[in-house]
């Protein structure tokens, strides 16, 4: 496929309905890509089983386009981008669950807490009671979270 053909197809591709986007955006900042992103997450979980060693961390996907939830993190190599939290396999680096950080969501079904404890609780739901080893960095470390993970049989 030629480069010009690729650019043409990228301009023509749409993954959501522009006419209903304004209504959906009133309850969800991630509305333009929510359906596609949820399908992507479903396919990720169907095609791979995590090993006994997992990790949770944040990543910054470099991006400088137009987007409401662009983050500036001066300590990262790419200072601007889309911040994501991910549950990954520590052996193969396969990403099992991703959550895009969009800031505070409007009131509605997608309004969730962005505290480190709540992020970890949402990310570990697929591996609860599996006796896997979960590694996190110090941003996620707290005694209530450690108690929760022990209760869910995550070491």
Automatic annotation (TrEMBL):
Pfam families: DDE_Tnp_1_7. InterPro entries: PGBD (IPR029526). It comes from the Eukaryota. Residues 1-154 form the PiggyBac transposable element-derived protein domain. PANTHER family: DUAL SPECIFICITY PHOSPHATASE 26, PIGGYBAC TRANSPOSABLE ELEMENT-DERIVED PROTEIN 4. This is PiggyBac transposable element-derived protein domain-containing protein. It comes from Macrosiphum euphorbiae.
């Amino acid at each position: 496929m030629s480069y010009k053909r690729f650019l043409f197809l990228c301009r023509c591709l749409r993954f959501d309905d522009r006419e209903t986007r304004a209504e959906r955006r009133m309850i969800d900042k991630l509305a333009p890509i929510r359906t596609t992103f949820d399908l992507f997450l479903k396919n990720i979980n169907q095609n791979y089983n995590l090993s006994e060693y997992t990790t949770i961390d944040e990543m910054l996907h470099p991006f400088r386009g137009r987007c409401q939830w662009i983050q500036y993190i001066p300590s990262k190599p790419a200072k601007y981008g889309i911040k994501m939290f991910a549950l990954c396999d520590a052996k193969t680096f396969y990403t099992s669950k991703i959550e895009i950080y969009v800031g505070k969501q409007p009131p509605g079904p997608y309004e969730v807490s962005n505290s480190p404890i709540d992020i970890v609780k949402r990310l570990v739901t697929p591996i609860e009671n599996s006796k896997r080893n979960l590694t996190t960095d110090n941003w996620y470390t707290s005694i209530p979270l450690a108690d929760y993970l022990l209760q869910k049989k995550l070491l």
